[in-house]
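Protein modeling request. Please complete all fields; requests missing the sequence field cannot be processed.
Requester role: graduate student
Desired output: 3D structure, token encoding
Chains: 1
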Amino acid sequence: MGKGDSLHHQVLAAFPLCHMTEEDLIQNPLFCKVLATLSQHVDRTGLTLHLKKELEKAQKELRSQRLGWLRMESLHRLLQEMVQEHRSSQHHSGTPTAGDKFYATLEQCLLVAKCMKRLDASRTVDQNRSPFLGLSAEEVLHQMPCKQDVLQMKQRLPTELQKHLKKKLFYLLSYYQPEWENESEGLRCVKLTKLPGLLAGERVRADNLAEKNRENALSLQRQTHSYLLELLECMQLLQTLVLDLRLKVQKDLDRKKIEYFEAKCEIGIQKIRAEMLAVQLDTYTRDKIAAHWKITEKLGAELQAAQLEKHSLESKLASFEIYGKEFEALAAEYCRLREEITTRSWALKEFTA
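Delivered output (353 residues):
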């Protein structure tokens, strides 16, 4: 098992770009052996050793070519700066100087070199294409200054270039340390020798600060993440508390609502009972009035019948006055009928009152 584990670790270390785990290698032992054998012929990126050497050689040559191009490009830009500065000073002074011929020769040489570069580029891109602006190399080279002027320019160029570089370095030194600007040229030249070390130190310090800023940014990001998690937990806890409080308050509100609805229902029931009682009372009153009317009608009918009977008896009494004791009996009967009529008339008056 120890040997197998070391083999797995060797394979994982040899192919770091492959998204494999030790469990994948354990489940596929034959594939693990193939990768272990392959790791002896390729590097960590998957390139063969021969191809890696060729790549390193090509990269080295590319760096060399790039360094040469950067040197030439830097020198070309310095020369252009020299020409532009001379033009600017000549424009402001308005008087010719001894260096006018040197800078004119230098500018013309730069223009010819630029045209030759364009011609070489156009020929490299398309062999069948016509030359740049229809010019040939001989025609462009024919625009070069005379050899004597070019020779004098080349002899003077290192000195002028050194002066220009020295001036730029003094500008850089004044920008880096403004208090050194008023010092003597010799002292500034001495400090210029220390400037690369100071700038290298500043660059290291800037890199350290940048790394520290990245670390601080990561730390701030982690702290922000932790803060957001804590804030989320607090919000969840607060939501739980609010929900519990809301449930308690809702319970009291529901109880009060129930009491309110019970009281409202009780009042409604009482109103319904009162209305029913009023309806029942109204019905009872109507029934009683109807009964009174029935009794009144009945008593009226009886009264009418008694009056008819009275008239009949009075007629009979008138016809029987001639009789003696028989009349007395009839008179007594008449009195009894009159009393009964009086009683019924009183009863009728009481019911109709």
